[in-house]
Automatic annotation (TrEMBL):
<feature type="domain" description="YknX-like C-terminal permuted SH3-like">
    <location>
        <begin position="284"/>
        <end position="352"/>
    </location>
</feature>
<keyword id="KW-0732">Signal</keyword>
<dbReference type="InterPro" id="IPR058637">
    <property type="entry name" value="YknX-like_C"/>
</dbReference>
<feature type="signal peptide">
    <location>
        <begin position="1"/>
        <end position="26"/>
    </location>
</feature>
<keyword id="KW-0175">Coiled coil</keyword>
<feature type="coiled-coil region">
    <location>
        <begin position="102"/>
        <end position="129"/>
    </location>
</feature>
<comment type="similarity">
    <text>Belongs to the membrane fusion protein (MFP) (TC 8.A.1) family.</text>
</comment>
<protein>
    <submittedName>
        <fullName>RND family efflux transporter, MFP subunit</fullName>
    </submittedName>
</protein>
<dbReference type="GO" id="GO:1990281">
    <property type="term" value="C:efflux pump complex"/>
</dbReference>
<dbReference type="InterPro" id="IPR006143">
    <property type="entry name" value="RND_pump_MFP"/>
</dbReference>
<dbReference type="GO" id="GO:0015562">
    <property type="term" value="F:efflux transmembrane transporter activity"/>
</dbReference>
<dbReference type="Pfam" id="PF25989">
    <property type="entry name" value="YknX_C"/>
</dbReference>
Amino acid sequence: MRKPSISFAVALVAAALLLSFRNAVADQAAAPALTVSLAAPAQRQWPETVPASGWLKPWQEAIVASETSGLRITDILVDVGSAVVKGQTLVRLSQDSVLADLRKQEAAVVTAKANLTKAKANADRARQLRHSGALSDEKIVEYLADEQTATASLASEEAALDSQKIKLAQTTVTAVDDGLITSRSAELGAVVSSGTELFRLVRQQRVEWQAEVSARYLPRISEGLNVTINEPDGHPVQGKVRLVGPSVSTDTSRAIVYVALPSDVRPRVGLYVTGSIELETTPALTIPETAIVFRDGISYVFTAGEDKRVRRIRVETGRRNNGEVEIVSGLDRSSKVVTSGGAFLSDNDVVKIAGEG
């Protein structure tokens, strides 16, 4: 009789231990895995952007060249990097031979004026005596022709004098516009010829961004759109579309968009930078970037329901701005999203909601 009683007692103890173990496991399973904060997706109005990249180049480049030939450079007054104003002297050429030719031409003008005075006096006398018979008709015609010849000769010599004065002025080479000198070919002592390039300058120190964009965006890009450029130092620069290029590259299917920069911005010419062009503003369903969990190259978010259990949902992301990311698909606007810590969660985990008792 004792053996059945002992067996029954052992069975009761075993059942009690099993029940206690199951309760402990259930309690452990129901314990919150993490304390999280939740947020509902927000509806924003964000501009759609077009990525672009390209070179910073001069808005317009001016070439300063010699207009005369055979003269030697005697002074160079500016160098690369110099800011100049329109009319400022950049180079002086030797004037000795030009001044000698100028004096010679001035003497020729004086001679022509004297010849004209003499010819005019003879012609006046011939006109007075035309009806008196004191001079033959042939002589009268000769005097009148001499007057015309002397007049033309004086005009020719005066024109040659003006030409010499222009040549003298050309011995001083000046800036054709306000700008920044970007290259110098002038060398002291060099004898220049007509058209010899001496300097290049960026007109008005204006630099523009020649951004390359995919041709599929061209119908939506127009003058005046806002542009953000990322400088190498990380400082963003704002600009505006000045011109949309009229042609598309057959090799890359990309077009050039010319972006004007603010007048007070002086980035270095020749830098290759990236940026974006803002198109029209469109609605965007956004959540904090910290809510996105990447696994195997796929974007997920965790949402929490009334039972405080999280669900992992795959989403497609779009634009990003000020710490938020656009959700293109996969998420309902009424969902409650775990804003951070999702990397430590698994699907169906129980969580504690921050701020709740």
